[in-house]
Hints:
Blueprint: H1 4-42, H2 46-58, H3 62-74, H4 78-91, H5 96-108, H6 112-125, H7 130-142, H8 146-156, H9 164-177, H10 181-194, H11 199-212, H12 215-228, H13 233-245, H14 249-262, H15 267-280, H16 286-301, H17 306-318, H18 322-334, H19 340-352, H20 356-365, H21 370-382, H22 386-399, H23 404-419, H24 423-436, H25 441-453, H26 457-470, H27 475-487, H28 491-504, H29 509-524, H30 528-541, H31 546-558, H32 562-575, H33 580-591
Amino acid sequence: MKTPLSSSRWMLTCLIAGALATSALAPMARADDVKDGKAALAANRLDDAMQSFERAASQGLAAGRAGAGRVYLRRRQLDKALDAFQIAQKMDAGLAEAHWGQGEVLKRLDKCAEAVPFLEKAVDLDRKFPEAQLSLGECLIAIKQLDRASEAYSVGLKWGPRWTPRFLVGLGGVETARDSLRAAAIYFTRAREQAPSDPDVRRALGDFYFGRGTWALAALEYQAAVEIDSSDAELHYGLGQALFYDKRYNEALDEYRIAVRQSPEFAAGQLALGNILYLSGAADPRRYAEARVPLEAYVKLAPDDPRGLSALGRTLYYLRERDAAIEMMTKASQLGEKSKDMYTVLGRAFADKREWQKAIEAFERGEPGPKEALIVAQILSFTGQPLRADSVYQAIIARDSTSGDARFALNELGKMKFAAKDWSGALGLFQRRIALDPRNGEAYYYSGLSYKQMDQLGEAINALRQAAALDSARADRHFWLGVLLDQQKDVPGATVAFARAVALDSTSKLMGKAYAQLGYYALLDKNWEGAAGQLERAAALDPQDKQSLVWLGQAYQNSGNRSKALETYRRVLAIDPAQPDALRGVKAVSGGAPSPSKGGGQ
């Protein structure tokens, strides 16, 4: 029979055993979470991996927090990864993975000098930590400590068939940095022979060929790596880059699309996709709208990278969002962007806004093509720098005198000489333009005006007839033809020309002169009402034209409308108190003298 004492001892023993069992299960549960997280990470199930690592971390396990850092690394969220690894180090200063993680983040940020101490600490804490050893070697290459890098990689050659090929790749990288390309190729080839199915080895060989500029060979190695691991966005990006430089643009575009679809936060992929779409916009403008999406994504991921701002700004310009484009490109310039294409596009944007000085400054930093050179020459002409403009136009013509740009330059250069009253010089250029393109109405137009200034009216009329025929919808062509026909006393021909001019343009001040001439011809025909109608339009377009008002007063006077005539003559005298026709008109209307039968002299 059990005594009360013996029964109590038995219960106490059970309680102690249960407590010990429970305390033993807790670390096992936490360890299982870490194990599950690593398995999920290896399978690229990042959400599952994060959940497992967070459970372990919440129970105080530093490896769980470091595991979360690995997930952030995989997602390229480097700030969050660094925070996680730093917390893991605080939880367990002896955890090699925490030191490796901080070094890995710094390495990816191109801060290898800062990364090396963390990586050295990691390999000191764990003498067989392949990832840390590989990263250490990579950073030692970056800071030009090649002998130490070789030593770091050589250590890993002893770690068996799984890791040896990776360290052979590292040694190949050392030899590449030494420009010992033959030795490097030997290491890379050995690595590929030992691990033909390791995507990292094939990637490394692709990187080697890429660095040498042998794009086709690089593409073959990247393609092999992608076939082994098609889930790696960086592999698709690397393949896309090799294809891009090998001028296989459609294939490159496909790879970039895959990269950003697999990893939307992969900034380099977004930039590459946006860039290739932007470049193809020259052939297919619809591509600019497509380019905008990845470029905006890149700018969000890397807001201070001038490359993204530059590419987005140029894209926006071709999408006709000029102000937003200028803002983006200006910020890129402030951040140090060197792209000549950007400054060329920025120059065009400023030219569109008539900000001439800013346009010139941008073009000077760019690489203007023939189209931009024409813009530069026009700006120089607008801003009173004819000699510089002349030089640019002459250079365009000298480059290829038969090109469309050269033909345009001939016209612009001719107009500059015309404005400078060099009539014969202008005429010579316009005749060259006509020889290249006999259907250019502008060249005939200015040729006609040049002949007019040189008092060669027959040649002037012939040239202006041709200009009016070629540019039949341009009112000024018909107007000046009418002026010259009027000088030749060809009233019927002038009437047709002026009528055509006002039919095309009834609102400009120049057309006021055409209406005035038509009114004058009506006065000559004693069509007082018709004359008044034409001259009223002339006076409305140019209220200060004394001659139109005098003729209008005469039309009113001849039609018997004395009050209107008197009012109109007084308008003339308000402009010019000594105008003789108006003075005679006032006297005649006021004194009751008979109306004149036709207008005063022209």
